[in-house]
Amino acid sequence: MTPIQVLHGQPTPEELATVLAVVQSRAANRAATGPSRGPATVWTDRTPRPVPAPGPNAWRTSLWPR
């Protein structure tokens, strides 16, 4: 694992231990599940979206979340 440096502030030993526990937990979880592709966004989500129905407000509702 890459060394961790405190760049600003003076954390207490308890604060530093908490941060390291969280970082180690997330690293272990990532190692167990494999690398993720990150959160799904409109740009990365490949599920087909329904085509907006034509109508007077179609332009307004075309970008609403579905």
List keywords for this structure.
mainly alpha, 0% strand
Give your account of this protein's structure:
The protein has 66 residues and is an all-alpha fold. The chain is 38% helix and 0% strand. It is built from 2 helices and no strands. The protein has helices spanning 13-33, 58-61. The radius of gyration is 22 Å and the shape is elongated. The protein starts with 12 loop residues before the first helix and ends in a 5-residue tail after the last helix. The model has no long low-confidence stretch (mean pLDDT 78).
Number of helices: 2
- Overall average residue pLDDT: 78
Shape: elongated
The topology string of helices and strands comes to HH
First-last Cα distance? 40 Å
Strand content: under 5%
Oligomerization state: single chain
Radius of gyration over C-alpha positions, nearest whole angstrom: 22 Å
Low-confidence stretches: none
Sheet with the most strands? none
Topology, element by element:
Layout: H1 13-33, H2 58-61
What is this entry, summarized?
By secondary structure, this protein is mainly α.
